[in-house]
């Protein structure tokens, strides 16, 4: 039995999506693809399919703390990935967990809306994430609509949202693709003033779990020790391939193919 080449462990604090398109299943699959081991800690249960989310329930903080503490006591955590939190109390719960993981990279995916448009938490949850979690995060990965909510700029551009949000977080990746542009531009803003743009061809259709896929892949790359700019590019390239090869098993959005066929 090989105990010398263990895969980096990423603690995932996310919601469960019964359709398997987003949430913890997306985290697990994307991290396996990076050569990492996912430690999935459930923060919320949802009622959703590939069309939209209709309801959700946030778990009691004691259950979330118990899950996370059990993993932290047993496994060497190399990175933490945040997905759906769903309540202000869960934001505070994550802060308590991170106190046990000083120096561990934290990727914060501020999940506020499902791909179908349904809410996964009130806007006050987003503001709590901005005020409380962003300062301890290594990077936040909102899409442009989420960045507009967090920056309180309903019609703001990516640059305008970044100017408002960078005082809260060290690195900010604002993903594009929510307009009708032929080329999708994803922008990485760093507090040191540097900016990096990554372009890709726009793919047809809409996708369920693309943000989860990206944030999880990024957390995996950071867990492997990749530097920030390279990790972002690798995660974006991987996510684009997952979307290119996506399938439509249900009546709604496409689900990214995060694992090769021979791994499924």
Question: Can you describe what's shown?
Answer:
This protein is α/β, with parallel strands linked by helices and 264 residues long. 36% of the residues lie in helices and 21% in strands. The chain has eight helices and nine strands. The protein has helices at 23-33, 61-74, 88-98, 123-133, 144-151, 158-165, 210-223, 228-244, and strands at residues 9-16, 37-48, 53-58, 77-82, 106-108, 139-140, 171-174, 183-190, 195-201. Strands 3-2-1-4-5-6 form a six-stranded mixed β-sheet. Helix 3 runs parallel beside helix 4 (123-133). The longest helix has 17 residues, at 228-244. The two termini are 23 Å apart. The model is unreliable at 115-120 (pLDDT under 50). This is hydroxymethylpyrimidine kinase. Pathway: Cofactor biosynthesis; thiamine diphosphate biosynthesis. Residues 17-253 form the Pyridoxamine kinase/Phosphomethylpyrimidine kinase domain. Keywords: Kinase, Transferase. It is an enzyme of class 2 (transferase).
